[in-house]
Amino acid sequence: MEIFTMIDIVGILGLPYPKHNEFSYNIHCPCCDDPQDPRSKHLNINLRKNVFCCPKCGLGGGMFDMYAYFANVPRKDVYKDLCWKMGRNLDKNGEPRKAVPIIPPVPEEVESPLMDVESRHATYTALLSRLSLAQDHRENLRNRGLTDAEIDRLGYKTTPVAGMSMMAKQLRSEGYYLAGVPGFFRKESGEWTFVHEARGILIPVRDQKGLIQGLQIRRDNTEKRKFRWVSSTDRKDGCKAEGWAHLAGSVSAQMILTEGPMKADVIHELTGISVIAVPGVNTLTQLKTMLEALRKEGLVSIRTAFDMDFTTNYHVQNGFRNLLSLLDSMDFKFGTYVWDPRYKGLDDFVWEGMMNKNRGAGD
Ligand SMILES: [Zn+2]
Fold first, then answer.
1. Same domain, 71 and 125
2. Where are the alpha helices (DSSP H) in 38-187?
3. Domain that holds residue 150
4. Under 8 Å CB-to-CB from 213, ≥6 apart: which residues?
5. Does 251 share its domain with 355?
6. Domain count for the chain
7. Sheet harboring 254-259: ordered strands across?
8. For the chain, which end, N or C, has fewer CB atoms within 10 Å of the first or last residue's CB respectively?
9. Which residues contact 146 (CB under 8 A, 6 or more apart)?
């Protein structure tokens, strides 16, 4: 029976091949994925274990089960059918088969493919509901101009320091996916847990529908790389965070574009204007995806509002040029916000202005 491997079956069935070096990848699930949406890919094929599995609908089994399902052949006839096809070296359309790619050597630590945004949102929402926001963190956010109601609605929390395995266990028992959700991974014992990060504020990074795509951390007591992604890359069954763009507010014709999801939330709450944030000016891949979606919903013009010191850094200047050429190539109208350079960010400037006005009104 060992003469067949999963990749043979994939080839014979004409299913999508993995990318180079991938041994675990997802394809469209014929059982539960929306046929109108070819991008929904819940069915995981594992070339190392020779199994397939859809965590959403439960379709799965060994490679012969997969062949039986896709080729619509009774399970007992699969072996015979495969021998015939392989022996004659024809594919399912009767064409000569393409060369079978060689399966790359498998690294020890296995990562999970990224879960869809709805599932990530559900898991992160359940996770955040179990966490609290420390008083010093609440104070920090108030000092940026956010009210308590806004802070709670946005879902900011303090990074957990203990009890991560217990929390992961509870989430799993309630049916939330942990595989494919950055931050979660398996310990040596096989038990699921969540990454232990330096203390800081957890920031939900949301898409245009308000769904949490991933989490960022604003780390306490550090000036270098203050913001980083919650990620469990290089961990067993862990998952890498992508450089997601964030939307604060609802879609409108004119929006502001800035750097950092927390800054975007603050500018939006202070001004009422909807704000898009890139995690960094050199991280534009996910921004393009978001802008395409926003354009369909009516976004026409964009004002960039990067911190006033951005012009002094060559690396940042370069990224900013790429950003503007992306906006230009997508046919957006765009301009730049300029404010009093004594204030580093637009959020600082607006907040200070509001404080002065309030002081004036009180006199
Ligand atoms: Zn399925």
1. no
2. 63-71, 78-88, 117-129, 135-142, 148-154, 164-173
3. 117-229
4. 117, 120, 121, 205, 206, 207, 242, 244, 246
5. yes
6. 3
7. 246-248, 275-278, 254-259, 301-304, 333-336
8. C
9. 154, 265, 266, 269
Q: What is the pTM of this model?
A: 0.69
State in Å: Cα 186 to ligand 1 middle: 23
Q: Is residue 102 part of a domain?
A: no
Same domain, 126 and 78: no
In order along its 363 residues, the chain shows pLDDT tens digits of 446 789 888 988 888 888 877 889 999 988 888 888 877 889 999 998 889 998 888 888 999 999 998 988 888 888 878 877 776 555 566 555 554 544 544 444 467 889 999 999 999 999 999 999 999 999 999 999 999 999 999 999 999 988 999 999 999 999 999 999 999 999 989 899 999 888 999 999 999 999 999 999 999 988 878 899 999 988 888 999 999 999 999 999 999 999 999 999 999 999 999 999 999 877 888 999 999 999 999 999 999 988 766 666 666 777 888 889 999 999 999 888 777 777 778 888 788 777 777 665 444
d(CA 286, CA 97): 37
Distance 166 CA to ligand 1 centre (A): 28
Ligand 1 centroid distance, CA of 24 (Å): 16
Distance 65 CA to ligand 1 centre (A): 14
Say how many Å lie between the CA of residue 12 and the centre of ligand 1.
21
Q: Are residues 272 and 332 in the same domain?
A: yes
Cα(51) to ligand 1 centroid in Å equals 14
For the domain that residue 65 is a member of, what is the CATH number? 3.90.580.10
